[in-house]
Design goal:
Distance between the termini: 70 Å
Oligomer: single chain
Largest sheet: 5 strands, mixed
Number of helices: 21
Shape: globular
Strand order of the largest sheet: 9-8-7-10-11
């Protein structure tokens, strides 16, 4: 029954793969979007939050996760005919994930039984062919030798296809392919005992396929030289998340920086533009593993690590030039925008977000946030164009927003930076003269207070939109694959720098897939989430909030 279930699941996976295959653009190497394939095949609409499982072709809205290398290996073992890498941002549903784990375990048990049977067969065969039971040496025939040797002349003659007879403990700890490889090398080295025998004398024609020859690892050849130039502007932005102009500007600055040194790759030395394309591809694809990126750009994994490290520090250290507080003229422009939206005096909105990371080695509990995953926080202030004006990154995920704000340099410098203006935030922040927050709702808010909360939420959504665009463009921020905490903090700041550099790009709206419609219920939900937090509201801030509330027309 297990075998039938495994075959049925494999058949389902292959049928899904055959359905997806016609939508793959092999010439331009474009990955199909399963949502589009599903709509075309099933003639059915999808909601924004639904994803498509590439194994069963069913829509899922919850209980799914991105396919990692472990699942990729399991899929390759179960159905090697499938090419899951052709799918854009693949996810797997929980039923398929459970089936994959169950059937993969069953296949593993079958292979172990097969190995034991093969080992027993080899042992019995070697016992029958033993010529001298009194000798301490073991004599084994090769398939091509019909004559026998005396045990005093030769210690051992080995078959090319036979497997070393080992103790039970060694057999359990050694993989079958390692045993075969060691036997092949043993058959080659055995020729040194007798000069009259060559390597060909000890290897039969059936065993020629077992010879291990050194060869280069197959990789994607000339992707940058041939494929990338064929992308139009939209396709280039979809793949690299920024326009060609921005990528060239970053390349020119990087080439003139102290961080740039030539790295060697499959196509010789890599120039600065090659560095930039590799880095942009890495930060823009959530499921891009180090091996996938290295193979695509024909470089080694060690070279990829060096490129990511250099580009991260280069871009992170540009933050003092790219992420700047608004000038006086810019403050007037920003305030005019918010005034037209019904909230005068505002020059920015503040909010924080979590970046998921792997479990840290040191003090992991402090990085476990209230949503029960390990994360690092970053705090941003943005203007009406979603341009990041201030960033503070590095606090563990368990720390509350208000504490992050109090520890940030912005907390002490906000009065000088804002002057007569102020920024707005949610109820997780303290109410200060230059930082206004909503009224806490205990069920007794007046009409004016409710109107103030509504107007604030309708303007504060810009910072949530900014963070959403940042993560949707540079999807590594959904789960950073780096391990070092300092490297991760620089990586987050580097992504914010690139975000500001590409603000004017015509990024496709459907690629963002974001919906930000805020209403009064969203404010109330923030109140419930932050209820009981000590925000240390300032008396002057409370008075200014009341004055602003009275200024807003009902």
């Amino acid at each position: 029954m297990k075998l039938n279930a495994t075959l049925e699941f494999k058949s389902t996976c292959l049928n899904t793969d055959n359905t997806i295959a016609p939508y793959v653009d092999s010439e331009k190497m474009l990955q199909p979007d399963l949502r589009e394939v599903y709509v075309l095949e099933k003639k059915s609409e999808l909601v924004c939050s639904q994803q498509i499982c590439p194994l069963c072709m069913h829509p899922v809205e919850s209980e799914f996760r991105c396919i990692r290398e472990v699942e990729l290996e399991a899929i390759e073992k179960l159905a090697p005919e499938m090419n899951i890498n052709i799918i854009k941002d693949p996810v797997v549903c929980k039923p398929c994930l459970d089936s994959l784990c169950t059937h993969n375990s069953f296949l593993k048990d079958c292979l172990e039984v097969e190995e034991k049977i093969e080992s027993c067969f080899v042992v019995s065969s070697a016992t029958e062919n033993q010529m001298d039971t009194s000798s301490l040496d073991l004599l084994v025939k090769t398939e091509n030798l019909d004559r026998e040797f005396d045990s005093n002349e030769m210690e051992m003659s080995i078959k090319a296809e036979s497997i070393d007879i080992k103790s039970e403990d060694e057999e359990r700890s050694t993989a079958l392919n390692q045993i075969r490889t060691s036997d092949i090398s043993s058959s080659s080295s055995s020729t040194s005992y007798e000069n009259e025998f060559t390597e060909e004398d000890l290897i039969s024609s059936d065993d020629e396929d077992l010879l291990v020859e050194e060869r280069e690892r197959p990789k994607n050849q000339n992707f940058v030289q041939i494929i990338v130039p064929q992308f139009n502007n939209t396709e280039f932005i979809e793949h690299f998340r920024v326009s060609r102009i921005v990528s060239e500007q970053i390349s020119n600055r990087f080439a003139n920086s102290e961080y740039f040194t030539y790295q060697s790759g499959g196509n010789g030395k890599l120039d600065s533009y090659y560095h930039v394309l590799i880095y942009l591809w890495f930060i823009g694809h959530q499921t891009a593993s180090f091996r996938d990126v290295a193979d695509r750009f024909n470089i080694s994994i060690s070279t990829l690590h060096k490129i990511i490290r250099k580009m991260t520090h280069f871009l992170s250290n540009l933050s003092h030039e790219v992420i700047t507080w608004p000038s006086n003229a810019e403050k007037i422009e920003i305030e005019h925008y918010f005034r037209t939206k019904g909230f005068p005096g505002v020059i920015g909105a503040i909010d924080g977000s979590h970046v998921k990371i792997d479990k840290p080695t040191n003090d992991p509990d402090s990085y476990l946030n209230r949503k029960h995953f390990f994360s690092i926080q970053f705090q941003v202030v943005c203007d009406h164009r979603r341009k990041i004006r201030d960033i503070f990154v590095g606090f563990p995920g368990s720390v509350h927003d208000s504490r992050v704000f109090r520890a940030s340099p912005l907390s002490g410098s906000l009065p000088d930076k804002c002057g007569p203006f102020f920024i707005i935030g949610d109820s997780g922040y303290p109410c200060l003269p230059n930082l206004l927050t909503p009224f806490k709702d205990f069920g007794n808010l007046t009409r004016r207070q409710q109107h103030y909360n509504l107007t604030l939420s309708q303007n504060r959504y810009l910072v949530e939109h900014c963070i959403g665009i940042l993560k949707q463009k540079f999807r590594q921020l959904y789960h950073v694959k780096l391990r070092s905490i300092p490297e991760i903090t620089h990586f987050i700041r580097a992504c914010c720098v690139v975000h500001n550099l590409c603000l004017d790009d015509d990024f496709p709206d459907d690629a963002l897939n974001l919906t930000f419609q805020r209403n009064i219920e969203a404010v109330y939900e923030h109140e419930r989430e932050n209820e009981g937090n000590e925000n240390r509201d300032d008396v002057t801030g409370i008075q200014r909030r009341r004055n602003v509330m009275n200024m807003l027309p009902l």
